[in-house]
TrEMBL record:
Source species of the chain: Apis cerana cerana (Oriental honeybee)
Keywords: Signal
Top-level taxonomic group: Eukaryota
Protein name, per record: Protein G12
PANTHER family registered for this protein in UniProt: PROTEIN G12
Keyword Phosphoprotein part of the UniProt annotation: no
Residues that span the membrane, as ranges: none
Length: 224
């Protein structure tokens, strides 16, 4: 759902979900799953290789066992409301189109989606801890993750790959395409998605930065 550049600029919430799934599900966080010629997966692997996954997982473990707010988010990920949101997203044709595009470009997108579904006890898609204290809450967790992510290197790699990799540049254009805009519009019209955004904002996620990046970097309009 997020653009590549806004993930680079404000990847904190995406990394939260990635790191959580890396710890509490069998997600292979170190290797981007490949399919076909693997071209897009190979490009994305360059970004993953810059992210200190082990350090992030250590942060996740600490927050998972010691932070009340973080534990509440883990509980929310297992709630009926969040599962309904994921099911709703996976029923949007534009989302399926983007998954299929990524799949055909060499990224096993369905493998990643189904790892999330497995954790949430949701059906697979087919291609077509004890609370003790609050040590920083979600905002503190995101700040710690941000501190270990090499943002400048990721930005430089992004610009370099857009300029020199046809498959990555095409994928970036897909994320700013009319199909992506339709997906954004449908999500912004969703009550479940807006409830999710409200929760994220209340936890300190800087949604305004994500929205500005999506609008300025890819020309998308974000009405929510």
């Amino acid at each position: 759902m997020l653009t590549i550049f806004n993930v680079i600029n404000n990847m904190k919430f995406a990394l939260t979900i990635l790191a959580i799934l890396a710890v509490i599900s069998p997600l292979e966080a170190f290797t981007v799953p490949r399919t076909g010629n693997g071209a897009l997966a190979d490009e994305l692997q360059k970004f993953v290789d810059l992210i200190p996954i082990k350090e992030i997982i250590e942060i996740v473990h600490r927050y998972k066992t010691q932070d009340i707010e973080f534990q509440q988010v883990l509980e929310y990920f297992q709630s009926y409301e969040f599962k309904t949101l994921i099911t709703e997203i996976e029923s949007i044709p534009e989302w399926i189109h983007i998954l299929n595009y990524a799949q055909s470009a060499g990224l096993d997108a369905y493998y990643l989606v189904n790892k999330v579904n497995e954790y949430l006890h949701l059906p697979s898609l087919k291609p077509s801890s004890h609370a003790t204290r609050n040590i920083g809450g979600i905002r503190g967790f995101l700040d710690e993750v941000e501190a270990v992510v090499p943002t400048d290197q990721l930005k430089s790699l992004y610009l370099e790959r857009v300029a020199n990799s046809a498959v990555f540049a095409d994928f970036n254009r897909m994320l700013g395409s009319p199909i992506a805009q339709t997906l954004v519009n449908k999500l912004c019209a969703s009550i479940n998605f807006n409830n999710f955004l409200t929760k994220a904002k209340n936890y300190g996620v800087r949604l305004d930065i994500i929205r500005v990046d999506m609008e300025e970097r890819l020309g998308l309009t974000v009405p929510c």
